[in-house]
Amino acid sequence: MKKKRVYKSKYNNIKVVIDGIKFDSILESNIYLLLKSFCNKNNLVLERQVKFCIFNNGKSKRYLIPDFKIGNIIIEVKSKATEKNPSFRLKKELFLEKFSKYNFQIVKSIPECLLLLQEFQSQKMI
After folding, report:
1. CA–CA distance, 104 with 126 (Å, rounded to integer)
2. Which domain holds residue 44?
3. How far is the CA of 14 from the CAs of 8, 29, 49, in angstroms?
4. Domain membership flag for residue 68
5. Is 30 helix (H, G, I), strand (E, B) or coil?
6. Distance of CA 80 to CAs 11, 45, 108, Å?
7. DSSP H/E element including 109
């Protein structure tokens, strides 16, 4: 009998499945539930992992695939450690240069996400 290998995540995240969707962390899944509820109450469309081409030189392409998109608001769930990842930082800069019409937000906690949604709602940005 073969043993099943258990791989430890680079950032010690626990993968979660909700509504048949795999999430990279418990935080990301909880933010999803919060955003889903918010969008249902406010008649908004919540999109997941929309692919944005941030670099294309004809030979190769690079993409940023944020966690969530509501209208022109992009929400990326990151921990302090993952936010400092050089690859993510570069992709974020390229995204901001190419897609300046979007409001790019990094969320590190549920209270932070709640405040962000309240702010957007009060400023009628959503």
Report:
1. 13
2. 16-122
3. 9, 10, 19
4. yes
5. helix
6. 10, 28, 7
7. none
In this structure, what CATH number is given to the domain that contains residue 84? Answer: 3.40.1350.10
CA atoms of 126 and 123, how far apart (whole Å): 8
Question: How far out from the chain centre does Cα 61 lie?
Answer: 20
For the whole prediction, is pTM greater than 0.85?
A: no
Number of helices and strands in the chain (H, E): 4, 8
- Within-domain flag for 33: yes
List, for residues 56-93, the tens digit of each pLDDT value.
898 999 999 999 999 999 999 998 878 888 888 999 99
Place of tokens 């009628």: 124
> Is residue 43 domain-resident?
yes
Q: Are 65 and 50 in contact (CB under 8 A)?
A: yes
Q: Report the domain count for the chain.
A: 1
Per-residue pLDDT of 8-49, as tens digits, reads 566 777 888 888 888 888 999 999 999 999 999 999 999 999
102 within a domain of the structure (yes/no): yes
